[in-house]
Amino acid sequence: MPLILKSDPDEIKIVQNSNKSSVDKITIDLISYSEDGEVKLTGRSNSNSRINIYLNNELRYYTDAGIGGSWEITLINLA
After folding, report:
1. What pTM, to 2 d.p., does this model score?
2. Distance (Å, whole) CA 13 – CA 8
3. DSSP per residue over 5-40, as a string?
4. 3-state helix, strand, coil in the chain (%, to 5)
5. Is 44 buried (19+), middle (13-18) or exposed (0-12) by CB count in 10 A?
6. How far is 71 from 52, CA to CA, in rounded Å?
7. I want to staple 26 with a disulfide (CB 3.0 to 4.6 A). Which of 33, 38, 42, 45 is the partner?
8. In Å, how far are 8, 10, 39 from 25, measured between CA atoms?
């Protein structure tokens, strides 16, 4: 399966990644910004995994990976 990206003037997003099923660790594939300037992370992990984002050793954000292992999160009020 080929890597498929979707882009518009504001962002580039991975729509399909050929390595989704072979990931054994959490990966960050893309760091981008929302229209409001918030940091957005997109990555892969095992299906249905919980992704925890720690800043200064404090759990600040979390999200769950989907069935295919893809996940994304916007880090609201990061500053």
Report:
1. 0.71
2. 9
3. EEE-SS-EEEEE-TTGGG--S-EEEEEEE-TTS-EE
4. 5, 50, 45
5. buried
6. 11
7. 45
8. 29, 29, 22
Q: How many CB atoms lie within 10 A of CB 45?
A: 20
Tell how far CA 20 is from the center of its chain. 12
pLDDT tens-place values along the chain, 79 residues long: 566 777 888 777 766 665 555 567 889 988 988 888 899 999 989 888 999 999 999 999 999 998 888 899 999 988 6
17, 29 contact by CB (below 8 A): yes
Distance in angstroms (rounded) separating the CA atoms of residues 77 and 14 = 24
